[in-house]
Amino acid sequence: MKDVWKVYFNGSFGGKSPDGSHPGQVLKLNQKFRFAGRDWYVPAAYLTAKGLVLDILMRADKAVLEDFCKKWEHLEDEDVPNDVFEQAERENPLAFEFSPQIELNGQTLPFSQGHGLSYHPLFQNAAACEPALDEHGESDFDTPTERAIIDHYGLTPEDGWAIHRYSFPWKTKRRPKSISSFALTLTPQPVCVPGAEFEVQKPGDIFAFSHNGIPYTLTAQNLEPQTLPKNAFSDARFDFPNRFTAMTYTVSPAPPKNLISVEDCAQNDPPVEREAPKDYPFMPEAQNAAVIGIIGGADGPTALFVTAKSEDKTVLTACSALHFAPPKKITWRIVFHETPFAPETFPLL
Length: 349
Description:
Elements: E1 25-35, E2 38-47, E3 51-60, H1 62-71, H2 82-91, E4 98-104, E5 107-110, E6 113-119, H3 126-129, H4 146-152, E7 160-169, E8 182-188, E9 191-198, E10 206-211, E11 214-227, E12 238-239, E13 243-252, E14 260-264, E15 272-273, H5 288-295, E16 316-319, E17 332-338, E18 344-347
Antiparallel strand pairs: 1-2, 2-3, 3-7, 4-5, 4-8, 6-7, 8-18, 9-17, 10-11, 11-13, 12-15, 13-16, 14-17
């Protein structure tokens, strides 16, 4: 059976070079380690003319995946608040956000791009569960599926796998002639942990809360109803909610940078599909769940249109959910951005 495994510096998991460059030379590593309570495996690196490409895989036990799916199966059928989704994301055995960096021959190399796939043994479709085959019935790694990657590295297909591929540019014009030392540092990204809910009616209203035993006071500086411009959304098939409230606030004492944010507990109003034009009777229908992503989260695209500005960096801004009509009240939520694990470094050679 043919096994053509080609890895390019600017490529993802496909086998074709996007810029005509040559594939990298494989450097087998086969390193396993524990990090953040999870099993990790670094099978190989690939040395290209532009830099090093590293595959980093994280394993999730099948039984753990089954328990997770059973607990959160209701998410597919109900509209649930953001904090519930955030909790499910924190508990997802295949979800773990991190930043990698490598130390190669005493030099630190940050990554320039990354790609990710997930192999879930309980929800793989037929194409992903079978090795990719060419017209002759042989393994075709020019277009590898998740299962093909699992097979190539000899991983256990009964488990789940989060598959990451990162590219690290060389610091010199040419690739090193030899590698004397090679280590990988993984730095976890913060996760969102919901805190207390509160309401403020006018500037000057305060809300007291604490984090890790430290008391804080949030003071509302301004509450300004705003409206998105008509051209904020480009899909003419739908009417989108465009009204929101921008709240500026301060927190005292000043918390560590990026530790605290504020979000609306409510969801965005779903878009409303307009009547199909008479000359276009077959306009496709769209479900609210499919198009709600166009709107974005309460602290996402809305923030681009906030008119309340301040040169004072201690003044922060939170944007409510989008509505067709201004809500009678807004319930806000404190969100803590916590990093539960410290960075760790693992030797690969």
